[in-house]
Structure formats: C-alpha cells, structure tokens
Amino acid sequence: MRLFLFLLLIFSLGCVSEEKTAKPEPIALKPEMECEVCGMRVLDYPGPKAQVHFSNREPAVFDDTSDFLLWYLQPDRPKTITAMYVQDMGATDWNNPRDAWIPAENAYYVLNHTRIGTMGNSPAPFSKKSEAEIFIKKYGGEIYRFDEITIELLQSSLNFSLSQSSCGPLQLFKFFNDTSQSAPL
Question: What distance in Å separates the CA atoms of residue 134 and residue 140, rounded to the nearest whole number?
Fold first, then answer.
C-alpha cells in the first residue's frame, strides 16, 4: 500500500510540474490590440512585433521589438512571465508582418541597421543566424543574442536610428528648438 501511495504521489507531482512548464502558444494579433508600452495599435505600423504571456493575466502585445525589449529589461517587470515571442523577420514581410512567431529568447537580433519600424530601426529578430546575416548585408547592423541586449545597447541603437532618420523625434525636437529651420515634414 505504501508503494502504491508513493507512486501515486510521484505521478501527481509529475503532472503538476508538466502543467506549470507548458508554454502557451502565440496569439494572433488583431487590429484593435494596443501596445503595452505606448498604446499604439500594433498592426498599424511596419516592423517586428512581440507578445508576452503571463500566468496571471492576458498576454501583452508590443508594436515594436524596441518597446518589448525596453519593457523586459526593466527591473520591475512582472515575475509571472510564461512565454515571450517575437516575429521572425526571415519568415514574414517587414512592412506588413503577420504571425511567424518564435521564442524571444532564441532569436538572433540585428541592431543598428537602417530598416525603419514602428519606433525607428526596431531590433530585427530572426530564427536563423544565416537569415540575420543576409539582412545585415542589405541593411547593415550587428547580431546580438537575447541575453546580450542591454538598455544601454538599445539606447545606442535608438540614437543611431534617430540620427539616420530625416523626420524622427530627434529632428522634430531640433526643429521646435531652432526656429531658423523649416519643418522637416
């Protein structure tokens, strides 16, 4: 009888453990969904998107991988994250990305490139390093793994993006603080 109870206990623990580690599947983005960080509609803009799943609430969606990564790198991010996904830009269209979700932690990210997404040159995620290298040949940049990305690196990448743009937030800030220029629009 003790052996039976012991085996029952071991089996029960195994089932509970398996349920906790089951990773939720990515959700399909809908036109009305808004970014967790900035409130912009996620499907209205080009470039890679992201989504985060939690054990205690509905998934959060992000209109840009910059917003997602900056949010994730905050020390007060939720501790209830169960899955994170980004779009594989080697498998979907940059200007109208749909589906092609890959685990965020496994992606190869290209930063400091010249392709413009929702928030500038959005970190471009790829499932294969070879696809990231092809992207770099066309748009420049460097490859980083998820655990190599820091807030400082993202800020540097965003500053690069702003300096390459003819009408980004930096240019508008300069315009409004220097009345001798004509509008960059």
Answer: 9
Residue 182 has pLDDT above 50, yes or no: no
Q: How far is CA 8 from CA 92, 116, 177, in A?
A: 47, 56, 72
HSE-CB at 59 with a 13 A cutoff on CA atoms is 20
Q: Residue 21: its pLDDT value, please?
A: 63
Nearest to 82 by CA among 163, 19, 173: 19
User: Which of 21-35, 53-67, 169-183 has the lowest average pLDDT?
Assistant: 169-183
Query: What is the token pair recorded at 35?
Result: 């970014």
For tokens 């071991």, the residue is 10
User: Do residues 47 and 116 lie in contact, with contact meaning Cβ atoms separated by under 8 Å?
Assistant: yes
For every residue of 11-42, DSSP letters joined together read: HHHHHHHHHHHPPPPPPPP-TT-B-TTT--BG
**Is it the case that residue 34 has pLDDT exceeding 80?**
yes
The whole-number average pLDDT for the span 31-39 is 94
